[in-house]
Specification:
The chain contains two helices and five strands; from the N terminus they run αβββαββ. It is an alpha+beta fold.
C-alpha cells in the first residue's frame, strides 16, 4: 500500500513539473566574427570596444528567427556606423583588425492564433576595433 502511494505521488509530481515548465523558452546563441590581423604595420595595438546590443533592433518573423544570417543583417548597419565613427575619431591611426562577438542572442517562439511566430534580439554584442 505504501509503495502504491509513493508511485502515485511520483507520477503526480512529474505531471505537475511538466505542466509548470514553460514550453516556449528563450534560447541563447553565440555569434562571432573577427577580421584577419593586418600584419603590414608593426607597433602597439590599441583596442576600442563597445556593447551595441541596445542599438540593434530586434527581428521577428514566422520562422527562422534563430538564423545567424538574420542576426547579422540586423547588426550590420549598427556595426558599420560604430566602426566608421571609431575610424573618424582616430584619423592618424590605422585599423588593424575589427570584429564582434555576442554572448547572448535571445529567441522566443510562440503560436498566436494558430500561426507560429518568433522574435529574437541581442542581449549583448561586443564590437571591437584594433588600431596601430
Amino acid at each position: 500500500m505504501a509503495r502504491t502511494w509513493s508511485v502515485l505521488l511520483l507520477i503526480l509530481a512529474v505531471a505537475a513539473l511538466v505542466l509548470v515548465l514553460p514550453r516556449h523558452t528563450a534560447r541563447a546563441q553565440m555569434l562571432a566574427f573577427a577580421s584577419p590581423m593586418d600584419a603590414a604595420s608593426q607597433g602597439r595595438v590599441r583596442r576600442v570596444q563597445s556593447d551595441l546590443a541596445r542599438h540593434v533592433e530586434s527581428w521577428q518573423g514566422a520562422r527562422d528567427c534563430h538564423a545567424p544570417a538574420r542576426a547579422r543583417a540586423a547588426l550590420k548597419p549598427v556595426l558599420a556606423r560604430w566602426l566608421g565613427g571609431r575610424m573618424t575619431d582616430r584619423p592618424t591611426e590605422r585599423l588593424a583588425r575589427w570584429g564582434y562577438h555576442s554572448g547572448d542572442i535571445w529567441h522566443e517562439a510562440q503560436v498566436i492564433g494558430g500561426q507560429p511566430q518568433c522574435r529574437a534580439g541581442f542581449r549583448r554584442v561586443i564590437a571591437f576595433a584594433d588600431f596601430r
